Amino acid sequence: MKKLLSACIVFSSTVGLAAPEVTSIIVRQLWPWSSKLRVEYQITGATGSTDLDASVTVGGVTTPVNAEYVDSEIRSLDKPVSGSIVIDAEKQFAGAGNNFAATVSLTASDASTRKYMVIDLSAGKDAASYPVSYLSDEPAGGWTDEYKKEKLVLRRVEAGTCSMGAYASTTGLGGQNDIYCPARGVTLTHGYYIGVFEVTQRQWELVMNSHPSQAGIGDTYPLENMSWEEVRGMTLGTNWPYSAEVDASSFIGKMRARTSLRVDLPTAAQWENAAHAGCAGLSGLPNGTHATAIDDSALLAYAHIGSAAVPVGTLQANNWGLYDVLGNVAELCVDRFQQSGKMESHEYGNFRKDPVGPGNSYTRTNWGGIFRVIRGGGFSDTDYHRVSLYYNNYVFDISSGRTAYRSTSVGLRLAVNFAAYPGE
Predict the structure, then answer these.
(1) Rounded (10°) CA dihedral 341, 285, 396, 322
(2) Which are the contacts of 366, defined by CB distance < 8 A and separation ≥ 6?
(3) pLDDT in tens, 102-127
(4) pTM for the whole thing?
(5) I need a labelling partner for 314 at 20 to 30 A (CA). Which of 209, 298, 359, 376 fits?
(6) Could you tell me how far CA 139 lies from the centroid of its own chain?
(7) CB atoms inside a 10 Å sphere around CB 92
C-alpha cells in the first residue's frame, strides 16, 4: 500500500451568490492493507446541484484524480453537506513507488456554472495532458473556429427520463412503424456531457496525428472514414457492454489518459436524449416539429444533405445547442446493433434504465454481435424517410468491431460520463 502523508482543503473558485466550499477532508485507508483510500468531506454553501473535483500532488506535481479510479458519484450532488469518495490509490499512484508524500485536494463547484466543458487539445499528440475548463454559457462571440479545432466543447446533460423510438402516428418511417413503434420512456440515472459538434478533422489530427477523412477536407469539417480500431480499439475496445475498457492507442484511450475523464462514444440512449433535446420524441426534427418532404425547409435548416460533408455548425442547432444531429455525417454509438422484429428487442429488451444495448449473442450471417449503432443520418442519405428514421430510431449497422470497415459518411460525437461505466 502506498503511504499518503498529508491532505489539504481547496476552496471552490466558482463565482455565485452562494458558492459551495469544501471545509474539511479526512483521508484514510479503506481497511488495513487496502489499496483504496476513503476521502471524507464536509461542504458548506451548497444550495443546489454541486460538482466535486479531486486532485493529488506528489513531488510538487498536481494532477487530477482519474475519474475511472473513483467509485463514487462526484457530479450533480444534490445540496451536499458531507459525504465520501473512494479512490483506487494503486492505480492513481502507479509508478510513484512504495513510500511517498501526497496531498489530496477537493474542490466544490456550483454545477450551474458548468453548462459547457472545454477540452484544450492545442498541445497536440505529444501532450501528457489536455487542460479541462468549464463555461456557464456560450461565449459572447459564439462558438468560433477555436472550439472546432484546438478546443473541443461539450454540453452538460443532466439525469432524467427521455423517450426513445417513434409513436404509431409518426409518419416518414418508410413503412417500418412496426419495428420502431411504440416509443417508450428510458431513464438515464446519471448525467453526462456530449459534444456540441461532431469531432472535426483538426481535433482528431491533434490527438491521433492522422488524417483519414476523404469527404470534404478542412480543419472544421467533421471527421469521417475512421475505423472502429482507431476509435476504441480491436483488443479491449470491442467488449462493450461487458466492459468499458478501450485500447490505449485508440482515440478514446488517448482522450481518457490525457483528460482523466470517462470519455467514450455515447450510448444510443444518450445520443437520442441529446438529439431530441429532451422533447417527447414525436417528431423527426430536433426542435419538436416534423418535416413533410425532403425539400422541406424545416428539415434542411438542420440536416445537411448533399454530395459531401460541410463544416460543423453550418446549419441550425437543436434546442440544446447541439449541431448536426441530423445529416452531415452519421454518428457512431458504442452500442452493438441487433436487428429484429421490434426495436424493443434489438435495443435492450425490457431494460429501460441506463440501457447499454444488446450483448454479442445475436448472430447475423454468423458474425455474432459485431455491428454497431449509428445515428442521425449522413450527407449521402438523400431520402427524407431515411434521415427521419436515422434520427428517431436505431439504424442499419455499418461499423464492425472485427473489421477495418470505414465510411466517408460516418463520424462521431464524443461523450463524457459522470458515473462508472457498465462492468466496473
Answers:
(1) -130
(2) none
(3) 788 999 999 999 999 999 999 999 99
(4) 0.86
(5) 209
(6) 22
(7) 25
